[in-house]
Amino acid sequence: MLFSIKHVKAAVAYMNNLNTVANWLAVCLY
Predict the structure, then answer these.
(1) What are the domain boundaries of the chain?
(2) What is the pTM of this model?
């Protein structure tokens, strides 16, 4: 199983998207 730079960047972008959604929900809920 090889991890290329593309995979790492994709994973980071995915996590950033989750954090953005979580922050947005926190703002809406609180």
Answers:
(1) 1-30
(2) 0.57
